[in-house]
Amino acid sequence: MNYKKKNFIITNSIIIVFVLLLSLLLNYYVTNLFGFNKDTFVPITIAILVFGLVLYLGLSKTIFEPLFKSDENLQKTVKETLHELNIPISTIKLNTQMLEKKLTDEKELKRLNRIKLASNELLKLYENMEYQIKKEIDRVDVTSFDLKELILKSIEKFEDIKRDIKIDVEIENIQLLTDINGFEKMVDNLISNALKYNIKENGFIKIKFEDNVLTIFNTGKEIDTKNLFIIFDEYFQEDSSKNGFGLGLKIVKEFCDKSKIGIKIEPSSNGNKFILNLKNIIANR
User: Fold this and answer.
1) Rounded to whole angstroms, what are the CA distances from 23 to 8, 33, 121, 194?
2) Cβ distance 96 to 115 under 8 Å?
């Protein structure tokens, strides 16, 4: 538990105890002053409770305002920094694209490609941080977008790690209405896992949308049924030899829960299928 949270809990507990004791004491003296009477006891108690609530809100605002203000300032600083970070990243991308057209030397092109990949990673980190900040301050935008277009865009991101794995996409034009950044992040994690945990030879991924359901199947080792209940837990990795932190599926589950997307996994002898029910986020249903 960080110090801010600890201080908040301790301070809030002290205020509650103080207001409660003061209200009880006040109730005792006022009741004795007017004499115990069932006709006056209830109005007096309600009035003192209202007084206690107002007092609590007043004290809370005074004490916690600096804490909340520091968090607002931190959010503002991070947002401004991220905005400024986007400029050099965009400059790097633009210049690498221009150089790519002019360079012919194979070694130089390889070096340029490494720069390009590194800038793409920086851009991913930037987009992720920006999304997390928006999510924390409840300013996530709901957008209408094409599912197939987003899926194809996501697949392009993993071209460098795709190897010879075949990816088949069977999706008609369908519009979704949800947080596009969160949905894209969820799809990225599922496709990344489908590539990472695929078989070494003749790997296959099938992405299909039918009857409001999006399925992502990949060939690979069957997920042990005993792990189906904990696979979405933080830091869980069925195969710890793979690179990663075990956060991808937790991110997927959190977004699905928030967006009312039903999710389940169907393991089979030749691979695993992730099933997402998108009926609640389909536009113009």
Assistant:
1) 22, 15, 57, 60
2) yes
Residue identified by tokens 């999510």 is 135
Burial label for 147, CB within 10 Å (0-12, 13-18, 19+), is buried
User: Cα 98 from chain centroid?
Assistant: 34
**Distance of alpha carbon 27 from alpha carbon 51, whole angstroms:** 11
Q: pLDDT category, 157, cuts 50, 70, 90?
A: confident
Q: Which residues make beta-bridge pairs with 177?
A: 144
User: How confident is the model over 162-194, as pLDDT tens digits?
Assistant: 888 999 999 988 999 998 888 998 999 899 889
Could you tell me how far CA 115 lies from the centroid of its own chain? Answer: 28
Strands 142-146 and 175-179: antiparallel
DSSP for 65-79?
HHHHHHHHHHHHHHH
Q: Enter the tokens of residue 197.
A: 């945990």
Phi, psi of 19 (to 5 degrees): -65, -40
The region, left, alpha or beta by phi > 0 then psi within -120 to 50, assigned to residue 220 is left
Residue 17, pLDDT score: 75
pLDDT (0 to 100) of residue 34? 64
What's the token pair of residue 149?
A: 């277009």
DSSP state of 208: E
Closest residue by Cα to residue 278 from 138, 171, 167: 171
Tokens of 143: 């957008």
Q: What is the pTM of this model?
A: 0.58
* Residue-wise pLDDT tens digits, 104-133: 888 888 888 888 778 777 777 777 777 676
